[in-house]
Amino acid sequence: MVATLARLRFTLLRNTLLREKWRIVLLAVGGLYALGLLAFAVAGMVALGVAADPQVRDTVLVLLGSALVLGWAIVPMVAFGLDNTLDLQRFALYLTPTPRFAFGLFVAGAVSIPGAVTVLVSVTTALAWVGSGTTAQRVSAALVALVTGLLGAATCLLLARVTTTAASGLMRGRRGRDLAGVVATGAVLVVSLVPVLLQSVGLRLSSFDALAGVLAWTPLGAPWAVPSDVAAGRWGVALARLAVVLATLGVAGVLYLRLVRRSMVSVGSGQGPSAERTGRLPLAHALLREPAAAGEGARPAVITPVRVRTTPAAAAVAGRSLRYWRGDPRYLASTGAIALMPVLVLLLAWLVTSQSTDVAFREVLAWAVLALGPVTAWIGAWSIHDDIAYDSTAFWLHVAAGVRGADDRLGRVLGLAVWLVPTVVLLAVVPPVLLGRGAWVPAVLGISLVLLGGGFAVACVFSAALPYPAPPPGANPMSSQSGGSVLAFAVQLLSFAVLGLLVLPTALTLIPVFAGSTAWGWLTLAVGTVTAVVWLAVGVRWGGRILDRNAVTVLTRIRSWPRH
Amino acid sequence: MTSPVPPRPPADPGSVPALHTWGLFKRFGPKTAVEQFELVIPTGSYFGLVGPNGAGKTTTLSMATGLLQPDAGTAFVHGVDVWRDPATAKRQLGILPDGLRLFDRLTGAELVTYAGLLRGMDPDVVRRRTDDLLDVLGLTGDANKLVADYSAGMTKKIGLATALVHAPSVLVLDEPFESVDPVSASHIRAILADYVANGGTVVLSSHVMELVERLCSHVAVMTEGRLVASGTVAEVGGGDLQRRFAELVGAEEVTEGLSWLRPSRG
């Protein structure tokens, strides 16, 4: 059973490689990387064993070991959670979930480059003990390290199976998948901020030692702390920690077995009652309602101050677009990225002030908030530059209905603009005024508006002319663009360049604002507003004409993308 | 590899067919998917397009309805060229494609509303028709649920509703009964029968012969991208469409079972 499953995994790998040749390169690079990592680990362990003092050695081993275990518990679930080459449900028809099958699956999951590297690196921790103490101490510690290293590696691999199996069970229903996508996105955003935060907090060596001391008693750090106890002759502590390790393996094993059994026995989604929603594209109806009849609607029209004349098709696209911004995890991930921008700006200001003492936080912040509006406008408007790809093959409905390209373009812009424009205006006006930079508001607003108008225009043209693979509906938002990453990168770069050109006239008016007086900001506002409207009009028309010409081509291309 | 395609179909103003494909030709890489000259679907017919899996049914219907650009040839909807005047042609077409997604983060009611508004209809008309369609298709109770949470049968039905909301004159349905439960199937059959009785034209593809024989007035058989027979069900099938189909597509009838396939116990 075990050998069969391992062989199955290699067969699957071989078939994938034969079908997609470029993956061979990826695999080779991964292998080289793994070898390098291994060499680095061996050198590091020897260095630790020979040179470092025991305290540093213990701390480093426990911290790195804990990071390894934690990494295995989280990363496969978040990043490769959708790697269902050995999906349990596919076996459900042929097998009963016995412990032997579960063990085979565990081994088959472990035979991979990362698995092999983890086992080998864990074993090399023995090298850290060959350099110090008496012969008896060295030999016993090294031997124990061999065993606990293997146990640690087993913990890594087992936890990975537990978390991925649990996650795949959760993600079977749509709601679970949605939630997982949003959580994964949030996790990635938070993790990407951790180094910055750590740096600003200013960790000292003693806090590392304390952290390692705590971790050494947890399932994460225990396997890596036992040899040190043995070397120091603390046999009681060593046994207690070994008990932690074994208990972890035992509990994880039982949990894994249960998860396997449950996910093979339960078929289908198994989700609760689904969400209900009574409105029928409220934004579309708000856009189409005559001003006279505005009072009788169930909801107030969001955009009543600005009368936008739209066709039913454009209004429909706008209404649908807004629904997706609020309900689709892929769009929610974009919203998250937009919402993160202000946080980043604030964090930056805080970092600058925490590094040096001679600038006041308030002073730096007052300058930093000037960027809030423009940055949000930029990221926000640009975020729909691949919008048709997000429709996936559902775009056929637009093709079948013969929606005019310009209506399609305008609708997508409206669905985003209806909340993005007020947000940007608010961010461009309120924080600067509150922090005493009111004089800068016209300039900031002007730049923000042209970034909105220009960004929308770029999005209108690019999403019609150069769609590139996006995550399909229902997929993890972080799993994006595996196939066309080169194309994606090129398109993003090009669209940024074009946006830069569109913003240039307005940006030039900033020179007198900085060099002379902030009164010139009114010129920025005037130029920004006018060019924003012009770019938007041109973008909608031109993008619309492009889409009229190649909507069918776009649909055909989307159909050729995997999983769409 | 270009096929000799006449520029126009023979003019016959007396009876303009509801759908008329003309010299459609499509290759995907080295494989010729569709190489089929003429398929005439008379107005008011209930037309079944049958063929084994991979025969090119979906490709043909996609090209005939403006969803896939043919390499050569075109299609006419009531005489309007789908690829020269798509706007006019598409107004008369209602389509239910197979294997393409729906905007499934909308509720059922929203999706039908969306389809209606996309076609430029008045919001009040769309509202009334959406309610009617949901009612007739037995979806009123699930109208406010996301299409993503629908079952396969419900998804087919809501797809049919999006194809019907603008009251088209020609309905082109790709595998409308696939994975549909019997109750939903009878809903769909009733709507289609009523539609044809009132002068509409239905074109559906299927690989279930019994279904086509029972429902349709006309049938066309295609295999390996070519049209091998077309006409009324009686003309083509001669009483046993299943057998005739097997002859046409060159499938041998299996008469003997597997000698070892006997129920075993244990």
UniProtKB/TrEMBL annotation, chain A:
The chain crosses the membrane at residues 24-48, 60-82, 102-129, 141-160, 180-198, 238-257, 331-352, 364-384, 413-434, 440-466, 486-514, 520-540. The keyword Membrane applies. The keyword DNA damage does not apply. Keywords: Membrane, Transmembrane, Transmembrane helix. This is Transporter.
UniProtKB/TrEMBL annotation, chain B:
It is found in: Cell membrane. The keyword Transport applies. Its main location: membrane. One of its GO terms (molecular function) is ATP hydrolysis activity. It is a peripheral membrane protein. It comes from the Bacteria. SUPFAM superfamilies: P-loop containing nucleoside triphosphate hydrolases. One of its GO terms (biological process) is response to antibiotic. Residues 19-249 form the ABC transporter domain. Pfam families: ABC_tran. Keywords: Antibiotic resistance, ATP-binding, Nucleotide-binding, Transport. GO terms for cellular component: plasma membrane. This is ABC transporter ATP-binding protein. It comes from Miniimonas arenae.
